[in-house]
Amino acid sequence: MWLYYLLKTICFLVCLLPYKLVVIIGRNCGKLYWYIAKKQRIRAEQTMMERMNVSAEEASTHIHKLFLNLGMTFMEMLYLPALNKDNIRGLVSFDRPEICGMLWLRSMA
After folding, report:
1. Percentage helix, strand, coil, to 5, in the chain?
2. Is the Cβ–Cβ distance between 55 and 49 less than 8 Å?
3. pTM
4. In terms of C-beta density within 10 A (0-12 exposed, 13-18 middle, 19 or more buried), how is residue 71 classed?
5. 83 vs 79: CA distance, rounded Å
6. Where are the alpha helices (DSSP H) in 37-86?
7. Mean pLDDT, 10 residues at a time, the chain of 109 residues
């Protein structure tokens, strides 16, 4: 039960921070995890080189970006309680809005 309250406290503290700082902290957490999770990093790079036929340097670059985004996503999940209808429009964006429109029209049919 104490773990639940610890996580709620961490979420509360993260929600007090500005969003840009949350993203910066998340990317740094991803860098830290990239150094800590060496076994998983090597396995991911080897799998990428084997399955996608990319060079070791290119695989390493992609996996490094993946870890950065993983840390950022983790911190964004902790930040979710701070989102509401007033501030979500400035923080959430769609890369390809035409796909959302197509899916919405398809669901209406």
Report:
1. 85, 0, 15
2. yes
3. 0.74
4. buried
5. 7
6. 38-52, 56-79
7. 90 92 95 94 94 94 94 91 77 73 80
